[in-house]
Amino acid sequence: MSWQQRIDQALALRRQAAAYRSRQVNQGGNGRHIQLDQRQYLNFSGNDYLGLSRHPAAIAAWQQGAQQYGVGSGGSGHVTGFSLPHQQLESQLADWLGYPRALLFISGYAANQALLAALMQADDRILADKLSHASLLEAAAHSPAQLRRFQHNQPSSLASLLAKPCSGQQLVVTEGVFSMDGDAAPLAELQQLSRQRGAWLMVDDAHGIGVHGEQGRGSCWQQQVRPEVLVVTFGKAFGASGAAVLCDQPLAEYLLQFARHLIYSTAMPPAQACALQAALRCVQQGDELRSRLHHNIQRFRDGVVGLPLALTESRTAIQPLLVGDNQRALDLAKQLRQHGLWVSAIRPPTVPPGGARLRITLTAAHQPQDIDRLLEVLHDVSTGNY
How far apart are the C-alpha atoms of 355 and 349, rounded to whole Å? Predict the structure, then answer.
């Protein structure tokens, strides 16, 4: 089979499964509304949970940072790319979340890949929740360590795996809030089991940070858990991009020596670190935004009762409606867009086979009438009234 035949076959199979992905040009930025092909839609697909991507303080801080430092960092943080705004942001994050150190990464994907690549050795074992993010499972599969997956949010399943002999170290990996189901991990139970077996716990709280816990400190703070490794990202509630790893001093120094994603990647622009400092202040002072978001979540859940689609038990900003069939999920998303509502159809391999869904995300920027409009159209399209 030639290169071209291999590519053509893979694309054909993806199309046949109604799992083909395509990108849309967003002409208006992310927020309550987005604009595509000169048409405005109510946006129920973004992860800007607090609406901070358009916050005046974050925008002004980025602009001022660009004027002072330029638009790029100029190199790796190990060369010339580590600037004062980076240092300040790391210090502020560590203090806020109760860790000795924070290290910035260009993305959450890079942070997860770097951690597992740098930490794991051939005699070690990674025990990951079955529904962990692709960045975690891919990094675990490519690491020299053995990968075992426990049943989603099932501490008993983890306990049985932890009990099996391991000549090296064990690392338990999970998310705080799962990106496709919107449910929360039982972090306290997972931590207790990990400590009983001398294992470390690593939590990726991309979808919990900024939204849950006191001052938006996230899922771990909310459940009074302090994992050995905490990953927080800035592409959701912070409204920007990038990530940070929170850990103790020795691990931070170890990562600075051995995490190749830190050593060989250009650091995030200093101006971005300036904007993230402003976003952090907004998150810390964002009780009103979080209250508005949680009211929107409850309004949606109250209104969706009776819909002929299964709603998960999520109490987070991620509210998936399970459809099952790939093509039906695509058709429903298309009908919603015809009525000015942008909702994404998520299909395998992003979710398990048979798990196609409408992934609805709610934000503090949504107005009550936006939620009501979504519910009205959802009821009509899912019952065939349109």
Answer: 9
Given a contact cutoff of 8 angstroms between Cβ atoms, the answer to whether 361 and 51 are in contact is no
**Residue 302, pLDDT score:** 94
Measure the CA–CA gap between 315 and 301, rounded to whole angstroms.
Answer: 9
pLDDT tens track for 59-99: 999 999 999 999 999 999 999 999 999 999 999 999 999 99
Which positions are annotated as active-site residues? 47, 133, 175, 179, 204, 207, 236
Burial 134-158 (b: 16+ CB within 10 A, else e): ebbbebbeebebbbbbbebbebebb
Number of CB atoms found within 10 A of residue 67's CB: 10
Per-residue pLDDT tens over the stretch 270-318: 999 999 999 999 999 999 999 999 999 999 999 998 888 888 889 999 9
Token pair belonging to 158: 């983890």
Gap between the Cα atoms of 306 and 302, Å rounded: 10
SS3 (DSSP) at 245? strand
Planar angle of CA 378, 320, 362, nearest 5 degrees: 80
Which helix H or strand E contains 116, and what residues bound it?
helix 108-119
pLDDT at 37: 85
DSSP lists the bridge partners of residue 233 as 243
Strand-pairing partners, residue 231, are 204, 245
C-alpha 100 chain-centroid distance:
24
Among 125, 61, 28, 91, smallest CA distance to 271 is for 61
Angle at 134 between CA 327 and CA 73, to 5 degrees: 120
The 10 Å CB-count burial string (b at 16+, else e) for 355-371 is: bbbbbbbbbbbbeeebb
DSSP annotation string for 44-67: -S---TT-GGG-HHHHHHHHHHHH
Q: Which residues of the chain have pLDDT under 70?
A: 385-386
pLDDT value of position 217: 98
> What is d(CA 283, CA 196) in angstroms, rounded to the nearest whole number?
34
